[in-house]
Write a structure and sequence with these properties.
This protein is 30% helix and 23% strand. The protein is of the alpha/beta class. The strands form four sheets. It has a five-stranded parallel sheet, sandwiched between helices. It has a three-stranded antiparallel sheet with strand order 4-5-6. Strand 4 and strand 5 form a beta hairpin. The longest helix is centred in the last third of the chain and has 21 residues. It is globular. 39% of the residues are buried.
Amino acid sequence: MRIIENQKIVLTSLKQTVEYSTLPFAKEEVNEIKKMLPPQIQIEVLQTPKKAQVLSALRGHQIAHFACHASLCFDPSQSRLLLADWKTSPFTVSDIAALNIPHAQMAYISACHVAVMKNLRLLNESINLASAIRLAGYPSVIGSLWQVSNEHSVEIAKEVYGSMLVEKSTLKTERSAEGLSRAQRSLREKLFQALEEGFQAIRWYGPHISILKCSLGNPT
């Protein structure tokens, strides 16, 4: 893939979502990414945006990052990313697949279950949020098959974006898979180390790992 000048990235986060649990680290995830990006990359931050705002922003940015909830529906075309107005104007698989994003490079969806579907009879069709993003024109897409840990999503995102930085001036999105693999290994090693130092159990959430903080006291 050719690296183009004047990369633009839109960072979307929703800490509070109607009828869903709070994502206390969603804003931090976006802020940490913003801090590490160089001034050559144009950044737009959307906090608690509505569908129309996101649609408008996607068309003008090569890279999109979402830190939010997602919802699966039995009709996979109606699975959705939960934006501020998801109840009245849902941002569905059908909406995303119909997009045509010029110069799209990468989409990072930091949300649960975005690469799966509920309807087992349609498994071969691979209709989900991650595949819809691909159809919209993004050659690189990061998503999850499982529930993700909001806290550790920050660490994973920082590692992925750090791996893509080229000479501190642009993001080489072809490196996203390599960066994700490195981030997974790093977090796994960190949490196994925590386990050895006195934590009771670990919980796997797809590419993310969350530790059950049940201290056993000082290890003997």
